[in-house]
Design brief:
14% strand; globular; binds phosphoric acid mono(formamide)ester
């Protein structure tokens, strides 16, 4: 019996749809894609003739550009939907937008949207596979995969690793997808932040540890991930001031010493330097933040290759 994971035509809404074995298979595929990205000629013909649409209805730098670069490196045609200059501005619905794009022959959609569940809607309207590039506060599975890949590549495995994620847990789709994926691979994840930015029942839902004190949360951590304070989603004054937040939760030389001396420092970006992380740490020797960005291209290449049945 063939037990090779099957990805052809699948959606990537979040990582709960994927087993640990499937996630590891994606990481191995991304390792091969990373090798291509390090060549002088960074292109293979595997998706020639396929058309990939990046349908971004919320701002992005890393995710959008790495999806487009990934598609281009696999020789697919890329249709880049610009929401701000599209007929969405004239009141066209998401449904009619997808019908319109689909009429042009799209094979795969990569979507970002501020509304949770939008990737499922795009799949429903198009019948085509959809990769979620971030939907509201809900999920950001390709970010989690590239984060997991970055740790796996450096440390060999996530099994038994202590990972501490610090920041605006309430508003973070990155943390939710990472909790699902990292737990599947055996990591012990601690989330830390102010009580007002910590959703209820995190332990029950995700099997993680919740800490409000940074020193306790960082103690003995192998990996420390800072999260962006999502100022655009702060509508209720959930903490007194950015200075107050920073005083208790910033990742700095002083606070990071509570983790293991060689702990990896991560951040999904974009960063608010000086609020959740200081440049001395973001740009320091333990930081793999720039590598995370590079690995994002490899992970997205791997997913496109597997979903569209690229030829090795
Ligand atoms: N990490 C991330 O999703 O960054 P962008 O918003 O720039 O895509």
């Amino acid at each position: 019996m063939d037990t090779t994971p099957q990805f052809l035509g699948r959606n990537v809404f979040d990582l709960d749809d994927y087993s640990a074995e499937e996630i590891l298979y994606i990481l191995e595929a991304a390792k091969g894609m990373k090798e291509i990205n390090l060549r002088e000629y960074k292109k293979i013909p595997t998706l020639r003739g396929k058309t990939i649409c990046t349908l971004f209805v919320e701002n992005s730098t890393r995710t959008r550009m790495s999806f487009e670069l990934a598609a281009s490196r696999l020789s697919a045609d890329v249709v880049s939907f610009q929401a701000s200059v599209s007929a969405l501005q004239k009141g066209e619905s998401l449904q009619d937008t997808v019908y319109t794009l689909d009429a042009m022959g799209i094979d795969l959609y990569c979507i970002r949207h501020s509304s949770p569940g939008s990737p499922q809607l795009v799949h429903k309207y198009s019948g085509k596979p959809v990769i979620n590039g971030g939907d509201g506060r809900h999920a950001h599975p390709t970010q989690a995969l590239l984060d997991i890949f970055s740790i796996w590549e450096k440390l060999g495995s996530l099994d038994g690793l202590k990972v501490t994620i610090v920041g605006d847990i309430l508003n973070s789709r990155v943390v939710r997808s990472n909790l699902i994926g990292m737990k599947k691979l055996g990591a012990q994840v601690t989330v830390c932040g102010p009580k007002t930015l910590m959703p209820g029942s995190m332990e029950e839902i995700y099997g993680c540890r919740v800490e409000y004190d940074l020193k306790t949360a960082l103690s003995d951590a192998d990996v420390v991930m800072g999260l962006r304070m999502q100022l655009e989603r702060q509508t209720e004054g959930l903490f007194p001031s950015l200075e107050e937040y920073s005083k208790h939760y910033v990742l700095s030389k002083d606070t990071i010493q509570w983790a293991k001396h060689d702990a990896l420092i991560m951040h999904p970006g974009p960063m608010n330097r000086g609020i959740e992380i200081l440049p001395e740490i973001a740009d320091g020797t333990q930081s793999i933040i720039v590598e995370q960005v590079a690995n994002g291209v490899a992970i997205r290449m791997a997913l496109m290759f597997l979903i569209l049945g690229g030829k090795a």
